[in-house]
Specification:
By secondary structure, the chain is α+β, with helices and mostly antiparallel strands. It has one domain (89-289, 302-418). The protein contains 14 helices and 9 strands. It has helices spanning 9-18, 23-41, 46-55, 57-85, 103-111, 121-125, 153-166, 229-236, 271-284, 304-317, 341-349, 372-375, 381-395, 412-418, and strands at residues 87-93, 134-141, 144-152, 171-174, 191-199, 242-252, 321-332, 361-366, 408-411. Strands 1, 2, 3, 4, 5, 6, 7, 8 and 9 form a 9-stranded antiparallel sheet that branches. A hairpin with a 2-residue loop joins strand 2 (134-141) and strand 3. Helix 5 (103-111) runs antiparallel to helix 7 (153-166). The radius of gyration is 25 Å and the shape is globular. The two termini are 32 Å apart. The relative contact order is 0.19.
Amino acid sequence: MSEVKIPIISPFLEFIEGFGFNYAPILAVLGLLGFIILLDSINVSQSQVISWLFYTAPIWLPYITFIIFFDKWVTWVRKKNVWEGGRKVFKIVLPPEVRKSPEAMEVFFTQAFLSGAADNLWQVYIDGKHAPIVSYEIVSRGGDINFYITVPEKPAQLLLDNLYAQYPGLAIEEVPLDYTAEVPNDLNGWNFVSFHMNKKKDDHLPIKTYIDMGLDKLPKEEEKVDPITPMLEVISSIKPGQQIWIQFLTRAHRGYNWKTGNLSLAEKPDDWGGAAKAAIDQIMQRKDGKASGTESEDTPRLTPGERKGVETIERHQSKIAHEVAIRWCIMSAPDAKFEGSDIGKVLRSFGQTEVKGGNAVGIRWRTDFDYHWFSDPFGKKLPVLKKAELREYKERVLHNKNQAMGWKVYSAEELATLYHFPGTVAMTPTLNRVGSTQAEAPKNLPTGTLPQ
């Protein structure tokens, strides 16, 4: 059980996090103090404890050293693998009309399941092979909107070919210089705020998707209720000198253990499915995951809402899953005014996928503090956090800064709802689309799916 789920302790830890502190060192100090008090209560002197630690060092010191070394080593070889492999940034220019529903994007995400499975331990611990991170981005620079995909170089062509297969009219351009290079790493003179968004509740509880909105039935353009259009309208309204970057970091959802470069307790591949099954059993009031086998007047009957909830969970469980981290940044150049009111507008645009009484995408962390006078009295911590967030965005990586942050599991259907290419229902004039001459799909499209 995670500490954030422990009664009484959880509210205290959330309170500490509200001040911008990492509570792990605090728990370590409290644990040490408790240990000292316990020893004092049984009349064990501190000198005896120090002597015992010294004599047993050959046992525990190598173990601790290995744990620290292991983590640093795996992190280093993975970074080395990413830098040696290289990354490419592609700009996606939409066709004048996108007549497909987000289901086309769901098919793409299903094929874009890059597990990064290694053949042996040498590839894991020496070559640094791991599930690659692909970043899907929506960027507004002064109201001019573009879609981007940042992907490792090796699977890039197969990824793009599968994208062409679903959207033949796209124009895909490799960007020689990453658009993020415009903002200096030291943020000299720039106003910058970063937010992390994700599911508020457990992974297996789905958000509202395009299927729930009826987009899978291909209604007429004027009848569509596309969840991405409010976001596009908001970010298109910013002024020159302002920018909004929205980033969806994705990687394949799979089990993690020592065979994949992780020393922590093995995470079963079906954890997502296991939690969903437990939730369904609870709704169905099954005992030990089994139905009673007989029906009587006392057998609980599902309400229409409960039945729909079970069907929705089961539908998502039948689909490919990705782990997703959502980051978005709002910034303004030194000579431009920072509009704080735009923050609330962007946050509300994520509300299109909220399920009342169910799951929703909300704030999990931000580059700010509830109490600056306590968390950052000298104003030194916040600039460091902002620079770190900018660097991580540019590198397309995620480093957790509190327990609420981190990867969440989304089905391909959920991910396609959050990131897809809108049709003409999106009337945003600054949304870049291909002109009268449409791009043609490559003639050598792959016949299969991406490598697993």
